[in-house]
Structures are given as structure tokens and as C-alpha cells.
Amino acid sequence: MMSSRHGRRMVAVGVGLLSTAVLATAMATAESGGSDRVHHKPRPTTTTSSPWTTTTTTAPTTSTTAPLPAAPGVPDTLRISSSPYAGFQFCVGGHPVVDSQSGLLAASPTPGSSGGTTLDPYPGLVGTFEIALADQDAFHRQSTAIESNGHTFAYQVPQGLLPNGEYRWRIRAEDGSAVSNWSPWCSFTVSISSSATDR
Asked: Which three-class secondary structure state does DSSP give residue 21?
């Protein structure tokens, strides 16, 4: 029969072995970062579109620009008269000579980009006249409404504006913000004798 002293010695050896095992486990845990969790690879995820999903498509915005107003035609048949009661001298094919400081300038409207004919009236148009010395920029400008018949632009030059000399004039048509090009210049001469009386 085992003696009590020998039994206590065996118990002591067993306790020592157990302590060594616990210490070894603790050291291994510390070296691994203190974690004993098991790492798993992430599971792949699958996205499934639902048959009840509604997709909204927005149509691209279309920018619309309002059309520009139709421009009137360039006035033609430019002519000039010494007075309202004198005959007209035409600029095309000649060089008018007037004996008045207040001549009458006139022109006719023409069809613009909106169509029409030279026989149609064009009510509502405005004619802008420019007068200049020969080969110089305009020194006088005046806008007047077309005659009530819609067929003639006319402008009576103010008295005394045109002393003897060489001049030229031109005109353009306007319909609100729509403006025609300028007509060609019409050159003319003012020649008043010392004995003549201004009309």
C-alpha cells in the first residue's frame, strides 16, 4: 500500500505538469495576438433584381429657341426731290442735283424673308435715313414711319440742313427688332444760286 508521503509527491508532480501546460497555452495565446477566433473566408454575395423594381428614365431636356422675326427687305428705288411738289430724280443711273437745302428723300419697301411682292403694302415699317458728306460718316439720322399707303418711305430734310456741297444718303427698313441691311449710298449735289429762294 502506497504511503501517504508518496501520494503527496505524486499530487505535487501532477499539479506542476498542469501549471506548465496552462503557462504554455497562455504564452501561445499571447504570441498570436490574444485571439483564438477562427477566421473564415467572406461568403460571396449575389444581387438579384426584383421583378417589382421600377426603373424611371428621364428624357433629355430639349432646348428650343424662338425663331427670329422675319427681317424686312432692303429699301430700293432711292430718289430725291428739291421739294414735295417737284419731280423726283432717281439715284440709280444718275447723280441727282437739287436746288434746295431741304430736299425730300424717298424709297420703296421690298419683300423680306417673310415673302411678298413689291406690289404689296408693308404697313408698320419704319425707315431710318442717314445723311453724310461725300465719303464721310453720317452726320444726321432720322427714323420715320412708312407712309399710310404702306408703299413709300419719305423724309423731308429740315430747312437749312444742307448747304451747297456734295452729299450722300441711305436708308434701312425696321420692323420692331427686325432690321434690314442698309441700302447702297445715293450720292447727290446741293447747288443753290445766290438769287434762288429756298423752298
From this structure: helix
Low-confidence stretches of the chain (pLDDT beneath 50): 1-3, 6-7, 10-15, 17-19, 22-23, 26, 29-30, 34-36, 38, 197-199
Give the separation between CA 174 and CA 143, rounded to whole angstroms: 9
- Residue 165 in contact with residue 190, Cβ under 8 Å? yes
Cα separation, 132 vs 32, in Å, equals 102
Pull the grid cell for residue 194.
445766290
Hey, which bits of the chain come out as E strands?
A: 76-81, 89-90, 97-98, 104-108, 126-133, 138-145, 153-156, 165-175, 178-179, 186-190
Asked whether the beta carbons of 104 and 79 are under 8 A apart, the reply is no
CB-facing half-sphere around the CA of 69: CA atoms within 13 A: 10
Reduce the DSSP state of residue 22 to 3 states and report it: helix
What's the confidence (pLDDT) of residue 174?
A: 96
pLDDT of residue 121: 82
* Residues 76-190, CATH architecture: Distorted Sandwich (2.70)
For the chain, domain boundaries: 76-190
Percentage of the chain beyond pLDDT 70 is 60
